[in-house]
Amino acid sequence: xxxxxxxxxxxxxxxxxxxxxxxxxxxxxxxxxxxxxxxxxxxxxxxxxxxxxxxxxxxxxxxxxxxxxxxxxxxxxxxxxxxxxxxxxxxxxxxxxxxx
Length: 100
Fold this sequence. Notes:
With 100 residues, the chain is α+β, with helices and mostly antiparallel strands. The protein has helices spanning 17-31, 62-70, 72-85, and strands spanning 2-10, 37-43, 53-59, 86-94. It has a 4-stranded antiparallel sheet with strand order 2-3-1-4.
C-alpha cells in the first residue's frame, strides 16, 4: 500500500469561490481515476507551518500509484489546475513499515 499525501497553499483567498471550485474539481477528477482509494481533502490547522490544505489518498501498490500518476486526467489536472493555482506544496508518499 502507498499513501500519497500533499499539503499545499492556493493562490486564491481561503474562502473564495475559486478555492471552493478548485477543491470540488480536484475531488471529482482525482477520485474518478481507477485505483484511488481513501481520498480525503483536509484543512491544515497547525501553527507550525503555513500550508492551507492537504490531500491524502491510498493505492494498493506501486503499479496502481504509477497508473494514477500517468493517467491523462491526473496529468491534465496538474497542468491545467495545479500548476496555475497552487502557490506552494510538499508531497510525501508513505509505505507501511514491515515491523513494529
